[in-house]
Write a structure and sequence with these properties.
mainly alpha; 8 helices
Length: 231
């Protein structure tokens, strides 16, 4: 331990910071895409839309059955080939590692957020729909103004928990040679030979961010519990 030199982190901080910003940006983008698509997927299933509902269920079952790293490889290597044949060019159309990461993470997380929201939809009393219909609200307005706000509030702790997992999973972009927080630390460690210092720093950063988010999950659960008791 006496040979450790954490002063190297001062010089490495700008590069590590850029890696952390990438990790956070990827998390935010995947959350936005995942929540938007996941909400649509959940509504399609809840409304029991013919054919489309079965397609969505099949997609969710597929995504939840394979690891994210495999989906990254599929998208990075196979989609350019498919696009090349679809355009008649015959040559792969490169998408790029960054676009691959953002799109793949968003599509992958959509399956998980969809299941969370779907469970929330099933937990609501059917009287909510009947009351909204009695007020003359359309089905779209019922979901937008009455149902979804309640569902998001109820499942917000689970959504935040899934987002914590999403943030941790961003380290998988190393397979695409992208520089996230862990990737930045790894590259610097290979250059200066300070593997222990770099990886300890990364561990502390992940611990701090995930611990703070976990406390937010606890606070949300307590708030939801108090609100349900005071009704």
């Amino acid at each position: 331990m006496s040979s450790l030199d954490f002063s190297i982190l001062v010089q490495a901080w700008p590069y590590l910071w850029s890696g952390l910003l990438f990790s956070l940006s990827l998390t935010a983008a995947a959350f936005a895409i995942g929540m938007a698509l996941g909400t649509v997927f959940a509504l399609v299933q809840h409304a029991e839309v013919p054919i489309l509902g079965q397609v969505v269920r099949g997609y969710i079952a597929l995504i939840r059955s394979i690891p994210l790293i495999l989906v990254l490889f599929w998208f990075f290597f196979l989609v350019p080939i498919v696009l090349g044949h679809a355009t008649g060019n015959g040559r792969p159309i490169p998408i790029g590692a960054t676009w691959t990461a953002f799109i793949t993470f968003g599509l992958f997380e959509a399956a998980y957020y969809s299941e969370i929201i779907r469970v929330g939809l099933r937990s609501l009393n059917k009287g909510q729909f009947e009351a909204a219909h009695a007020l003359g609200l359309s089905r779209f307005m019922t979901y937008r103004l009455v149902i979804l706000p309640q569902v998001i509030r109820v499942v917000s702790p689970i959504i935040l928990s899934q987002t914590i997992i999403l943030f941790q999973d961003t380290s998988l972009v190393y397979v695409l040679s992208l520089t996230d927080l862990l990737g930045a630390a790894s590259k610097l460690a290979q250059l200066n030979g300070r593997l222990v210092e770099m990886y300890l720093f990364v561990a502390v950063v992940y611990l701090a961010i995930c611990s703070a988010a976990s406390q937010a999950v606890v606070a949300l659960r307590r708030k939801n519990t108090l609100m349900s008791l005071t009704r």
